């Protein structure tokens, strides 16, 4: 058993405007766009549950009530399915429904940045470590990213950030970490920089949207000034925490799709279609034909 306080809660900041997906996001939150037949947010929630997370905390905003409805019972729909003996469909709905009392919602009234969205979860998270999953990043891997992070956390405690390698000439697009000595199955993080100028990145390990953070981050966020893009930046607050606490990097080996961007979203749909036995036979030959122009 780990001597470190268990990571029980996961925060999902879903209050962003999703401007890269306008006009769709005018009325549909980007987290509800579907990859094959599940909304993006469902993949991320499943990743958290696979890692042993017990309580889901959503930081929502205006026009996001459908996310709340999605994690609730749809009484009329279920009645209709029952009256038509649609048991397979009812099972899908039952599997997707979180246990009563294990989901909380709070509102970020203004989209002041990711750091501010995380801070809005402080009262619900309380004084314990928590997982943070950016819901537009979805991952495909044998073992879920968060599961590997929790395993590393059980060895090291402290804060964990998942990272992946990018081509060195692409580092300027990401949040990049500095790499120190190995600890457990990870490494010590020595620094962090958001979108470093070309040729200045301390490594090619980029932050992929999965974190385990200690609650002291909330105190820092409460006085955090606006940074890049005039938003309250999580990276700025993590940098301050780095001077007081340990951060370990978890090297995630799998595929990540940025569903907040059009290309990532389309690629996620192709990749997840091809990894589904029921869909692959329907789409593979046609995708090949489209690509080869036949
Ligand atoms: P992004 O910058 O990718 O999301 O934030 P966005 O602002 O919604 O997207 P674009 O750039 O306008 O297309 C990363 C995550 O942080 C959340 C977003 O919902 C997203 O999941 N976020 C961002 C908030 O919850 N609140 C904010 O103020 C900003």
Written account of the structure:
With 294 residues, the chain is of the alpha/beta class. The protein folds into two domains: 182 residues, Spore Coat Polysaccharide Biosynthesis Protein SpsA, Chain A (Alpha-Beta Complex), CATH 3.90.550; 34 residues, no CATH class. The chain has eleven helices and 13 strands. The strands form three sheets. Strands 5-4-1-6-11-8-12-10-9 form a nine-stranded mixed sheet. A hairpin with a 2-residue loop joins β2 and β3. α8 crosses α9. The longest helix is centred in the last third of the chain and has 13 residues. The mean pLDDT is 93. The structure holds uridine 5'-triphosphate. Uridine 5'-triphosphate (UTP) binds next to α5.
**Overall 3D shape:** globular
Q: Please identify, by name, the CATH architecture of the largest domain.
A: Alpha-Beta Complex
Q: Report how far the terminal alpha carbons are from each other.
A: 58 Å
Radius of gyration: 20 Å
**What's the CATH class of the largest domain, please?**
Alpha Beta
- Bound ligands, each once: uridine 5'-triphosphate
Q: Into how many domains do the coordinates divide?
A: 2
Oligomer: single chain
Structural class: alpha/beta
The number of helical segments is: 11
Strand order of the largest sheet: 5-4-1-6-11-8-12-10-9
Bin the strand percentage.
15-25%
